[in-house]
Design brief:
Rossmann fold, 6-stranded parallel β-sheet, binds 1,4-dihydronicotinamide adenine dinucleotide, binds uridine-5'-diphosphate-glucuronic acid, globular, 14 strands, NAD, about 425 residues, single chain, 14 helices, alpha/beta, UDP-glucose 6-dehydrogenase activity
């Protein structure tokens, strides 16, 4: 099929490259000319394992990019993969995706054949039909349900394993309101369903929108519960990881997402839990449990600092921060726990020396004035303390490097460094 994907960020680029790999012809539309140029040259604009290879193989061929929305007219369906960030009060800001829907509608006005518009972005129930569907109808002067349909297909990929997740999903959720839209959306997913046999959930549009929030709220709350239990474990000198390994054996709990530590960051858990809370408030409902999950998450970086202070008062000290990305495998620092950790160190008068294998440049935009180094070894050299914020594999291999610290105090927020002789080691929840 001929597909167009509006937005070529973490989701749009991954989905486009994977659909191209599955045999579709895909056009990415983005307002950023550099991204468009990179894709046409066969280069991925973001860091994701496996993405470089797919873009190199299909870029400029089955996968092309443009800034021109007119390209949608040559396609059978358009996915909107645009940002849906938080407003200051936590509620969803739909202005970017609304602007994209308007440009899409204007372009679709001169298309003769039926078109399917699929919302891939995370949006609160009602947005796809009531907001975006209406904008496209107005801008195109066409009728929804006759000339075009809207559908909702939430995305569950994780950064750091985006390609693998997209090509091997547990489930595919197809939210449509009529048979014609369902048929076209199912046709788009046919090669993926054939190759990886995920569960296919055919549902309504509002249900699809809510499934995405429920999925993320559940996972974020699971990690916060694990962090709360971990904090209690630490008070009693109990190893939270042994406890979680045991409870994870209960099928009803499941062994994944039980890693306690410095908390969840990223572009989605923080913004989606905040949007869900705001959406609930708008309807007069008090979502106490999701609010508590957010509160626990905000506490974890503070607890990391308290553990450091028990051994090294940071004032005037050189403190290494190992890991800046919000999780390993990505260069994304959006809402990374490293941000509140570095802020707290600066507030306490520490000199921060930071290292991450891929996310340094992105963190430089938040903190242009701290010292960035090229290796964990360089960060530890002469440091009075080290805080581990991201569980990059390479930190597990650190050994003699700790000997170059002035004072080898290591506070691990991710259970990645091994407790060993010669260092003062504190695990956040163990
Ligand atoms: N990042 C992730 O892992 C996941 C994100 N999502 C959701 O997917 C959506 C997109 O997120 P990301 O890919 O992370 O965003 P992103 O910020 O990485 O990428 C967005 C892209 O849209 C482009 N753009 C902005 N305005 C535009 C316009 N008017 N027309 C064309 N292009 C425009 C930007 O230049 C950028 O390349 C959000 O709703 C997010 O919640 C869902 C699942 C996973
Ligand atoms: O909506 C989204 O954007 C995505 O959000 C998350 O994916 P992502 O944020 O990329 O990464 P995760 O692996 O979920 O990690 C999120 C945060 O939770 C933390 N985490 C995760 C698991 C765990 O056991 N403990 C823990 O602290 C990670 O370190 C990270 O900071 C979801 O897992 C995806 O299904 C979803 O599509």
């Amino acid at each position: 099929m001929e597909l167009s994907i509006v937005g070529s960020g973490y989701v749009g680029t991954t989905v486009a490259a994977c659909f191209a790999d599955l045999g579709h012809s895909v056009t990415n539309i983005d307002i950023d000319e550099d991204i468009v140029e990179q894709l046409n040259d066969g280069q991925a604009p973001i860091h994701e394992p496996g993405l470089d290879e797919l873009v190199a193989e299909h870029g400029g061929d089955r996968l092309t990019a443009t800034t021109d929305y007119g390209a949608v007219r040559e396609t059978d369906a358009t996915f909107l993969a645009l940002p849906t960030p938080s407003r200051a009060d936590g509620s969803i800001d739909t202005s970017i995706i609304e602007a994209g829907a308007r440009s899409l509608g204007e372009a679709l006005g001169s298309k003769d054949d039926y078109h399917l518009v699929v919302v891939k972005s995370t949006v609160v129930p009602g947005t796809t039909e009531d907001v975006l569907g209406s904008i496209i109808e107005d801008a195109s002067n066409e009728s929804r349900g006759e000339d075009f349909d809207v559908a909702m297909n939430p995305e569950f990929l994780r950064e750091g394993s985006a390609v693998e997740d997209f090509l091997g999903p547990d489930k595919v959720v197809l939210g449509t309101e009529n048979e014609r839209a369902n048929e076209r959306l199912s046709a788009v997913f046919e090669p993926l369903v054939e190759s990886s046999a995920p569960a296919v959930v055919e549902t309504g549009i509002r249900e699809a929108e809510m499934i995405k929030y429920a999925n993320n709220a559940f996972l974020a709350t699971k990690v916060s519960l694990v962090n709360e239990l971990g904090n209690i474990c630490k008070e009693y000198d109990v190893d939270a990881y042994e406890v979680m390994d045991a409870i994870g054996l209960d099928d009803r709990i499941g062994e994944r997402f039980l890693r306690s530590g410095v908390g969840w960051g990223g572009s989605c858990f923080p913004k989606d839990t905040a949007a869900l809370v705001a959406a609930a408030h708008e309807k007069g409902y008090e979502p106490s449990l999701v609010e508590a999950a957010i509160e626990v998450n905000e506490k974890q970086p503070k607890r990391l600092l308290e553990l450091l202070e028990d051994h090294v008062p940071p004032q005037g000290k050189r403190i290494a921060v190992l890991g800046l990305a919000f999780k390993p495998g990505t260069d994304d620092v959006r809402n990374s726990r490293a941000i509140p950790v570095i802020e707290a160190l600066q507030n306490r008068g520490a000199t921060v020396v930071a290292y991450d294998p891929v996310a340094t440049e992105n963190m430089r935009e938040h903190f242009p004035d701290i010292e960035y180094v090229e290796s964990a070894t360089a960060a530890l050299d002469g440091a009075d303390g080290a805080l581990v914020v991201t569980d990059w594999d390479e930190f597990a291999a650190l050994d003699d490097e700790f000997e170059s610290m002035t004072d080898p105090v290591v506070v691990d927020g991710r259970r990645i460094v091994e407790r060993r002789e010669g260092i003062t080691y504190e695990g956040l929840t163990w």
